[in-house]
Each structure stands twice: as C-alpha cells, then as structure tokens.
Automatic annotation (TrEMBL):
Gene3D superfamilies: Potassium Channel Kv1.1, Chain A (3.30.710.10). Residues 29-97 form the BTB domain. Belongs to the NPH3 family. Keywords: Ubl conjugation pathway. This is BTB/POZ domain-containing protein NPY1. It comes from the Eukaryota. Pathway: Protein modification; protein ubiquitination. PANTHER family: OS12G0117600 PROTEIN. SUPFAM superfamilies: POZ domain. Residues 207-484 form the NPH3 domain. It comes from Triticum turgidum subsp. durum. Residues 489-510 are annotated as: Disordered.
Length: 510
C-alpha cells in the first residue's frame, strides 16, 4: 500500500470532547468551524491563506459579528476537513488509499487550488494519485471502493473513471509481465494468501485479477467489467470465469437468503447485472451449469421475462452439456408442481430447432458425401436424449406433474436422440409407479412412447417382470425377445426358447 506524507510540524490536533477538535497553541483560536456536529477551534491565518472557500465564509461570519463558520455539506466530513486543516498548518498528515479521496473532495470544496498557494493540497493529492495510486493494482481498487461514499464529487473529479481505467488496463497486461501483488484464492492457494509475483519464478495465471475485483460492489463491478470488455483483449472464457467468481462471492446459496425481503431486490440487481455482462458470444464464455444456476436465481427472485429469455437463449446453445441436477429448476408457482418442467420443455424445443437448422445446412453442403462418423450435432443430440430421459425419471416422482406435461417433454426429443429406449422406459415406469391412479387410456398412451425393439436385454427382462405395465406391452417385449433370440441363433428354438415365451412370473419393480 502506498502512502504520502505531507508537512513537517508535529500534529497538534487534540480532542476536547466527543465532538470537539482543537489545536494546541500559544495563540488563542479565533475561528470555530462546524463540520456537521463536530467543532474545530482553529486559527484564521493558516486556513485563509490556502482556502478560498474559508476566506468567503469567514468574511461573511465577521460581517455578522461571529467567529462561527458552519459547513454542513463538506464531502469527506470531519475526517476530510481535518486532513485539509492540518495541511494548512503544515502539520504532518499521511495520505493513503483509504483517505485520499475524502481529502481530494474536501480540498476541492474548500478551494485549495494553485491560485491560492503554490503547491496547495489539490496539487499534492493529484501527484499522489497519478504517480502512486493509479500505478498500484491493490490501491486502485481500494480507492475505487471509497469513491461511492463521496459521490457525486468523486465522479466529477474523475477519480472514479481514472481508477476504472487503471484497473481495466492492468487486467489486459500479459500475465508474464504482472509485477504487482494480487489475491488468488483458487485450488491449491490459501484463501487469505496474497501472491507477490516479483518473488515468483512462475508466470501469473490468466485469471489472476478475478478475485480482487469480487470485492467491488455491483455498480462499480459493472463499470469495471464494461471497461475490460471494451478494450477487446479479454477472452469470453475469462470474462465468464470472472462473472462466475463474482456470482459465487455475492449470490447466496440458500433459498431463504435469496428471497428474504431485505435482500431480494439486491439479489435481483446482482443476477441481472451478471447476465447483462455475459460475453456477447452466446455459445462460449460460460458453462451451461453456470447459466442454469443463474436461471434458477432469476426464477426465485422474480426477474423480468426479458432476463429469463436472454438466459434461455444462451442455454439452448449448450443444453446437451447440462446434468439432470442442473435442470431441476423450481416452479414459479406452487400449483405447477415442484419443478418447472414446462421451462425445460421450452429449452429442449429451442435446442432441437437450432440443431435441425444446423443439420439442414450440413445436408446442403455435404449431400454427396458419405457421413461415416457422427458429427458434433449428432453427438449433442444423443447427449440431449440421455439428459431428457434422466430428467423425466427424476421429475416423475412429483405427484403434481401432469400427464400431458410428461408426454410433451418425452416427445420433444427427436427420434435420432434415442437409439436405445432404456432411459425412456425407466422414466415411464417411474411415472406410472408414482401416479397409481393413472387411467388405462393414459397408461396405454404413455407406454406407447416406448419402442420395445430399442430396449436392451436388461430392460426387456425388467419389463417382463413389471406388473405396472399393460399386458399388451409385456407381450410385445416377449415377442421381440423371441425374435431377437431367433435372429442371433441359426438353430430352431429349444424348449428353453419356448419357455421364454410362456407367461412370466411378474414381480413389482421396487
């Protein structure tokens, strides 16, 4: 941390009570400056020689026959004023990243310019900011954090903008040239460790800057990230990593903390800012898991439809990379059940539509080529099929899950996504088990989703012993087993094969 000492005389300021500050001197004080509730007993000459504002205020007070000067709107308050007053007396005062903004704003208010006195306080502070603060990574962040309490002065004096630009510029430096200290709390590094690159032989990691920026409040963080992105030197993946770290730092994990009345608006602002800052490339930068976590927060804090729409559009580009757990999004209304299955259905439809367009493009370009290996779109479609079937098995336990909702999601997956129907079979079985009052027509319809010819041997064995299935389905499975056994053997069916066609002893699946 950088410091700057001004003045050479001993500090003669003392407290004369809870709200009284005075200068110990052989000369009697001749002016009382009121800064809010705090009174400063001072001398006119050192103050008036450096402050144009105090010149005017003291003149007015003298005309009224009083020694009291009242200032209620001084930026930086009593602490900022005391720094300015000590400077006027030539007393030792130490500027640091923690007080320099308060001192700068107070000096501006008091008119401590070069016109009043060469080498005045504004000049000294500007030298310190430009030559030390803005060259230091940590100090720039500390100063930027302190500016919020001093708005609009800190903004008008361009302290905020200069700090943001300095921080953004440093994040763009080649990691091999990082020569300042930074916090790095990733795996293998202690949570409180401060890395000193100058003493290291290894190059700083590409995301060395991410953790320190997490200390900024959301408004300042947004402005810094906009500045970083505008420089065009940061990859979407690093931007995504930074946003993920900020979300982990500030968004609570628990439902109660997210929706608490005192913090719900704050959490809504946080998540919407993070979404607004997402990389422009919708297919890269952030993992599907992270995007789905943001979507879950958006649902819980009640963000607008446009925010949800933006996330859903991004998720649809990489839905196949999600896990079943990622997709367990809470329903917006209790009447809709535990999970928002309709929203997942919407995501699946978007993914399928996008993949279909991509396939059409491949067909036009490669219609004369024999496709031997599965291309990326086909692989992602297969992954989607497994994901949806796993999700259906999970949400089937919801007693409020409507039959039509289950069927619509199951049929939203293209046929090519299910070369094997085992996952769909177990999902259907789970739904029937958890909804014992399903009528015969619906049971027939839901079982009709299963292509028994695409069941594995293990799934067939399970189905033949499953008394939750309609008898017609069991017979179809047995018939297919017989055909499969016949096609795999050149000899006629043995007694064992005939016995396999006999009505099995049916057991309920646990």
């Amino acid at each position: 941390m950088k410091f700057m000492k001004l003045g050479s005389k001993p500090d003669a300021f003392q407290s004369g009570g809870a709200d009284v500050r005075l200068v110990v001197s052989d000369l009697a004080t001749d002016v009382i400056v009121h800064i809010g509730e705090v009174r400063f007993y001072l001398h006119k000459f050192p103050l008036l020689s450096k402050s144009s504002k105090l010149q005017k205020l003291v003149l007015k007070a003298t005309e009224k026959g009083t020694d009291d000067v009242h200032i209620d709107d001084l930026p930086g308050g009593a602490k900022g004023f005391e720094i300015c007053a000590k400077f006027c007396y030539g007393m030792v005062v130490t500027l640091s990243p923690h007080n320099v903004v308060a001192a700068r704003c107070a000096a501006e208010y008091l008119g401590m310019t070069e016109e009043m006195d060469k080498g005045n306080l504004i000049f000294k502070i500007e030298v310190f900011i430009n030559s030390s603060i803005l060259r230091s990574w940590k100090d720039s962040i500390i100063v930027l954090q302190s500016t919020k309490a001093l708005l609009p002065w800190s903004e008008e004096l361009k302290v905020v903008g200069r700090c943001i630009d300095a921080i953004a510029s440093k994040t763009s430096v080649d990691p091999a040239n990082v020569s300042w200290s930074y916090s790095y709390n990733k795996k293998g590094v202690a949570c409180t460790e401060i890395i000193e690159p100058a003493g290291k032989t290894s190059v700083a990691p590409k995301d060395w800057w991410v953790e320190d920026l997490c200390e900024l409040d959301v408004d300042l963080y947004k402005r810094v990230m906009v500045a970083i992105k505008s420089k065009g030197r940061m990859s979407p993946d690093l931007i995504g990593e930074a946003l993920k770290a900020y979300a982990v730092r500030w968004l609570p994990d628990s439902y109660d903390a997210l929706v608490a009345d005192d913090y719900m608006r704050r959490n809504q602002c946080l998540v919407e800012t993070i979404i607004w800052l997402l990389p422009s490339d919708k297919s890269s930068g952030c993992s599907c898991r992270f995007l789905l976590k943001l979507l879950k927060v958006v649902i819980l804090v009640g963000s607008g439809d446009h925010v949800k729409e933006e996330l859903m559009r991004r998720i649809s580009f990489q839905l196949h990379k999600a896990s079943v757990k990622d997709l367990l999004l809470p329903a917006a209304e209790p009447s809709d059940g535990i999970h928002d299955v309709r929203l997942v259905h919407n995501l699946v439809q978007r993914f399928v539509a996008r993949t279909a367009l991509s396939h059409n493009g491949d067909f036009v370009e490669k219609s004369d080529e024999k496709m031997i290996e599965l291309n990326f779109e086909q692989e992602s479609t297969l992954a989607l099929g497994e994901l949806v079937d796993g999700y259906l098995s999970e949400v089937a336990a919801d007693p409020d899950l409507e039959f039509s909702t289950f069927v619509e999601l199951a049929t939203a997956v293209p046929e090519a996504a299910r070369p094997v129907h085992d996952g769909l079979y177990y999902a259907v079985d789970a739904y029937i088990k958890e909804h014992p009052n399903i009528n015969k027509a619906d049971k027939k319809k839901i079982c009709g989703l299963i292509d028994v010819k695409k069941l594995s041997t293990d799934a067939c064995v399970h189905a033949t012993q499953n008394d939750r299935l309609p008898l017609r389905v069991v017979v179809q499975v047995l018939f297919f087993q017989q055909l499969r056994a016949g096609s795999s053997s050149a000899v006629p069916l043995t007694d064992g094969g005939e016995n396999a066609c006999a009505k099995p002893k049916r057991r309920r699946r646990g």
